Amino acid sequence: MDLTTVYCDLDDFYCNFSLETPHDLLLGPRHLRQRCTSLSPSELMTILVMFHQSQGYRNFKGYYTEQVLGRWRREFPDAPSYTRVIQLLPRVLWPLVHYLGSRRGEVSGISFVDSTPLKVSHNARIHSHKVFRGLAQRGKSSTGWFFGFKLHLIINDRSELLGVRLTPGNVDDRSLVPEMAKGLFGKLFGDRGYISQALRHTLQQQGVELITKLRKNMKPKLLNLIDKILLRKRALIETVNDQLKNVCQIEHSRHRSPINAFVHLIAGLVAFTWQEKRPALSWTAEEQEILNAHKQLVCA
Question: Cα(first)–Cα(last) distance of the chain, in Å?
Answer without folding.
Answer: 41
